[in-house]
Amino acid sequence: MKKIIVYIKESYDELVHKVSWPTYSELANSAVVVLYASLLIALVVFAMDFCFQNFMEKIVYPH
């Protein structure tokens, strides 16, 4: 039980005193980068899906 308490105290000390937390502006900038990257990946996946669907409809399974 003592090991668990020591572990929790050391973890708390590390989180409070040793971790370098980002500033609000750094966090906001990172969030914007993640948003744009997610949108770009979504558009790429949409384009690939659209092309594959058209390929399947026109070449593989024509009506």
UniProtKB/TrEMBL annotation:
Essential subunit of the Sec protein translocation channel SecYEG. Clamps together the 2 halves of SecY. May contact the channel plug during translocation. GO terms for molecular function: protein transmembrane transporter activity. Belongs to the SecE/SEC61-gamma family. One of its GO terms (biological process) is protein transport by the Sec complex. The lineage of its organism: Bacteria, Pseudomonadati, Bacteroidota, Bacteroidia, Bacteroidales. It comes from the Bacteria. It comes from Bacteroides reticulotermitis. Keywords: Cell membrane, Membrane, Protein transport, Translocation, Transmembrane, Transmembrane helix, Transport. This is Protein translocase subunit SecE. HAMAP family: SecE. The chain crosses the membrane at residues 27-48. Component of the Sec protein translocase complex. Heterotrimer consisting of SecY, SecE and SecG subunits. The heterotrimers can form oligomers, although 1 heterotrimer is thought to be able to translocate proteins. Interacts with the ribosome. Interacts with SecDF, and other proteins may be involved. Interacts with SecA. Coiled coil: none annotated. GO terms for cellular component: plasma membrane.
